[in-house]
Amino acid sequence: MNETSLDTARPETTPRAQGFSMPAEFAPHDACWMLWPQRPDTWRYGAKPAQRAFAEVACAIAESETVFVGVNDDQYENARHQLPAHIRVVELSSNDAWMRDVGPTFLTHPDGRLAMVDWEFNAWGGLEGGLYFPWDKDRRIRTKIAEMLGIPRFAAPVVLEGGALHVDGQGTLITTEECLLNANRNPDRDRDQMERVLHDTLGVDHVIWLPRGCHLDETDGHVDNLCCFVAPGEVVLTWCDDESDPQYAISREALEVLETSHDAKGRRLNVHKLPQPGPLHIAEDEASGIDRLSHSHPRRPGDRMAASYVNFYIGNSVVVMPLLDPAHDEAAQGIVQGLFPDKRVIGVPAREILLGGGNIHCITQQQPRP
Which of 80, 195, 261, 352 would bridge with 49, disulfide CB 3.0–4.6 Å? Predict the structure, then answer.
């Protein structure tokens, strides 16, 4: 395993210059990586309800590909007991369980090599709006996985999380200005400078900037809760028809950008609307089981959650999506199944994951097949 620190003054150090690029999530995978929840100020009742939900997600994805679950030492035996034998449990310490954001962004090369990007991480905003402190264990996860896999690691000099981007594998990336241009991430970089980082690091040619992410998304607007590629030239967008709901304007802003954009191949995008659940709010009993700490994000009774059906995981033969609202789950699952006619869509009850601030896509990270 070797590390390369990216230097804009030396273009030959970039993944793009060396022939690497980020493949689409719907491209073939070798594995999926997850982390085990246990943080008491994120997950209620000692994370036991969340652990059951994570285990169900892991089992669903394991129908499609190998699943690794990283666990802190003090939870290793418990996780090994709760997860079936074909789920691979590895000791991999973390501050919380959001593998999409703290794990690697994997890259592939035409000659069959695998590499990863190691972004800077500051818990979604550092001391200016971040969700917890410290995040030292999270920062080491990418290095450890690179060591485990024996692959090159490109250390990128920007704060960025995996949930902030989606690619089509053909040169196009979608992100949000709310997140990537947020002052609590990279205050010294403007939009053009961030685009150059994305071009050089991920091998993309064209960036589509959506204004904002979902309403009250505590990640400062991650795109994976709002919109994602389901195929080249095809995207799915969280939708809301209630004009009194703040999500209404957000979704229409995004739709206007998407419908007037083209991808790196010059194609217009076909936008599929996926109605949001709810709105959903934290119940009194759900908030009462969470530790209240001064350095963590508060989770109070009545708070609205950034619920979205778009936050699904695309596996080799399955799509694992959250079930969040009995009034809308069946219709949403039908829409997702229509988007992936060759895969089996598995719905997993995911409110316990949502209570922690994210969902299925946020807790997973695909390892592509080179």
Answer: 352
